[in-house]
Amino acid sequence: MAQFVAGVMEFVLGNTFGCTLHCSYGAFWLAFAMFSVPTLGIQAAYNGDQRAFSFAVGIFLIIWCFLTIIFFVAALKTNFTILMVLGLLALSFFFLSIAQFVSTEHTTAAVRLNRAGGAFAVFCAMFAFYAGAAGLMLKDTTFVTFPLGEIPYPSVKREKAAAAAAAAARNV
């Protein structure tokens, strides 16, 4: 719920990307929690068919993996830290979803895949905490700042402006 509220606060600040990420993943946690609430009857709807329920959870997680990949592509011009958060999160969703798909027939493989997904999630959380700390420790508020690893992409506007200036200099 707090992550969803953070998304609303990002909306107020005008940060569309941050709003989309926080609201989306806040909704993920709310939806994922619904699988565990017995009074909703989601798991009971599968009438004890654990394989079908695990497959449904796997589909849920793989959809979030694909959405995270879309967010990763949308974030390519941000910074290294955000790319690491999204990349590791996509890998975590991928391994956790595959673990759900194989959980009823290959329990040993499912345990290993769950551990791999969990490990990627822990590293994702470390990068996310670092990004959060960097967002708090700004030059305006503290003497200590954390670099986010800016990616040195060439600016198309800068290249066009340089080409226009060179053309104008030739015409003079």
Automatic annotation (TrEMBL):
User: What is one GO cellular-component annotation here?
Assistant: plasma membrane
Q: Which UniProt keywords apply?
A: Membrane, Transmembrane, Transmembrane helix
Keyword Transmembrane on this protein? yes
Which InterPro entries does the UniProt record give? Answer: AceTr (IPR051633), Gpr1/Fun34/SatP-like (IPR000791)
- Spans through the membrane: 27-46, 53-76, 82-104, 116-138
Domain of life of the organism encoding this protein: Eukaryota
Q: Which Pfam families match?
A: Gpr1_Fun34_YaaH
Q: Which GO molecular function terms does the record list?
A: acetate transmembrane transporter activity
Predominant cellular place of this UniProt entry's protein: membrane
Q: Which residues form a coiled coil?
A: none
Its record classes its membrane topology as: Multi-pass membrane protein
Instruction: Indicate where this protein resides in the cell.
Output: Membrane
Family, according to the entry, reads as follows:
Belongs to the acetate uptake transporter (AceTr) (TC 2.A.96) family.
Name of the protein in question: GPR1/FUN34/yaaH family protein
